[in-house]
């Protein structure tokens, strides 16, 4: 995420839920959702699968890179994906090659960086504050 981004001073969970793609979305719904934000299917695959990795590392910490390979090589191939949307990205012919390309760690890191920069440019605010602590509104 680029530094110096403005954050709002009021957050609503309902608004976030309305704007974020559901973990139950199929590939067509995911592609449409990300396209409305100006992101490609390739960017979607790299950002979406990384969020799953972060979530899983909180549950079952692993050494760097181990989760990616194991998750893609076994879990998804056995149709045991954590989220419907994750499994759908692996199963769908439009995105499967992108998902399996993530097994190459160097490629994953390069593409992830590009995708996160693109995602960070979505919905940039012109009104708000640059927070000193990202978890809290600045004291007045």
TrEMBL record:
UniProt xrefs under SUPFAM superfamilies: Heme-dependent peroxidases (SSF48113)
Keyword Ribosomal protein included in the entry's annotation: no
Pfam families reported in the protein's UniProt record: peroxidase (PF00141)
GO biological process: one example: response to oxidative stress
Region feature Disordered, mapped onto this chain: 1-20
Entry keywords, A to Z: Calcium, Heme, Iron, Metal-binding, Oxidoreductase, Peroxidase
Residues involved in Ca(2+) binding: 57
Record flagged with keyword Transferase: no
Catalyzed reactions: 2 a phenolic donor + H2O2 = 2 a phenolic radical donor + 2 H2O
Cofactor: Ca(2+); heme b
Note accompanying the cofactor annotation: Binds 2 calcium ions per subunit.
Residues of the Plant heme peroxidase family profile domain: 1-138
One MF term in the entry's GO annotations: metal ion binding
Membership in a protein family: Belongs to the peroxidase family.
PANTHER family recorded: PEROXIDASE 55, PTHR31517
Protein name, as recorded: Plant heme peroxidase family profile domain-containing protein
Species in which this protein is naturally found: Marchantia polymorpha subsp. ruderalis
